[in-house]
Design brief:
Helix 4 (128-142) runs parallel beside helix 5. The protein folds into 2 domains: 2-85, Alpha-Beta Plaits; 90-290, Vaccinia Virus protein VP39 (Rossmann fold, 3-Layer(aba) Sandwich). It contains 8 helices and 14 strands. It has helices at 19-28, 57-60, 79-85, 128-142, 162-169, 184-194, 230-243, 260-269, and strands at 6-13, 33-36, 43-48, 67-75, 90-92, 96-100, 112-116, 153-156, 175-179, 206-209, 221-227, 244-256, 272-280, 283-290. By secondary structure, the chain is of the alpha/beta class. The protein has a 7-stranded mixed beta sheet with strand order 10-9-8-11-12-14-13, sandwiched between helices. Strands 2-3-1-4 form a 4-stranded antiparallel beta sheet, covered by helices on one side. It has a 3-stranded mixed beta sheet with strand order 5-6-7.
Length: 291
């Protein structure tokens, strides 16, 4: 009887290019919660409820590069604390301080606090690709590029909307957050709600749950952000170029460092010139200018 009261937690090494497929499979196997460790972004926490026999680890490891590092059980009364262990407050760039909604920690040096719910969709600042995009947006706003964040901004694959919110906080007045996942709509609205004290108005960005072909996006943007996989960036490139204004900027992330040459060649073929390359761990992001 006692064993039925125990939750199961897996710590897994899950490459970002396998995340969607693997998490869909895990939820199908009965997982109750899945999120990345903000301090060690290669690690993902997976929780299974009491009374459920977890799936075969070997089946999970059939997803390329995925491996179960630790499998452990813990009592029901430890659930809240265990679920919070993987996400602590951290600084991003020169301006921002990202903290989970339960944190009482205050930022130092006048940093702007962004509050996130780690149980929401992808994009809570804990992954290198998100932080890299936030850093490059700071470059546009603060390093003499005529603050391109002041004009229309489009965040493709927005997830929770944290990059759209960052653009707003850096001065953008017209920000659209686009994602195809219906679950991202409530996640974006929650992000707006829990950060209402730091935004300049009630709607810091406009969530759109649709595709890039949506007629509501039939205009140009001074900055397009694409924190998605390189394959998807290349696939969407013709539409992104249509949405990007002349002399507009693109921030592309979700790119493995080992694929830098491939990425830069693809961008050059589309008429995009690299301005700055930022690297963290095995990931890179590129700030590009439409030439």
């Amino acid at each position: 009887m006692e064993n039925k009261l125990l939750h199961t937690r897996w710590l897994i090494d899950l490459p970002i290019d396998q995340e969607d497929a693997a998490t869909e499979w895990l939820f199908g196997q009965g997982a109750s919660a899945i999120f990345r460790d903000a301090g060690h972004s290669g690690v993902v926490f997976v929780y299974f409820p009491p009374g459920l026999t977890p799936p075969d680890k070997g089946e999970l490891e059939s997803f390329k590069g995925t491996k179960v590092i630790v499998a452990e059980n813990f009592a029901d009364e430890d659930w809240l604390e265990k679920s919070r262990e993987g996400f602590a407050a951290f600084e991003v760039g020169c301006r921002f301080f990202v903290r989970p909604e339960w944190s009482t920690e205050e930022p130092l040096n006048d940093r702007i606090p962004i509050t996130v719910n780690p149980g929401m969709a992808f994009g809570t600042g804990g992954h290198e690709t998100t932080r890299l995009c936030m850093n490059l947006m700071e470059c546009l706003a603060l390093e003499g590029h005529d603050n391109k964040l002041g004009g229309p901004v489009l965040d493709i694959g927005a997830g929770t909307g944290i990059l759209a919110l960052t653009a707003h906080l850096l001065g953008a007045e017209d920000v659209v957050a686009l994602d195809i996942d219906p679950d991202c709509g409530p996640a974006m609205e929650e992000l707006i709600l829990i950060n209402s004290l730091i935004t300049r108005h009630d709607k810091p960005f406009f969530p759109v749950i649709s595709t890039l072909e949506d007629p509501r996006l039939n205009r140009t943007f001074n900055l397009v952000i694409a924190n998605i996989l390189l394959e998807t960036i290349v696939e969407l490139m013709p539409l992104m170029i249509q949405r990007l204004s002349p002399k507009g900027y693109l921030i592309a992330s979700g790119i493995l460092v080992e694929r830098q040459d491939e990425a830069l060649i693809s961008f050059a073929s589309a008429g995009l010139a690299p301005i700055k390359v930022a690297v963290e761990g095995e990931w890179m992001a590129v700030l590009l200018l439409r030439s």
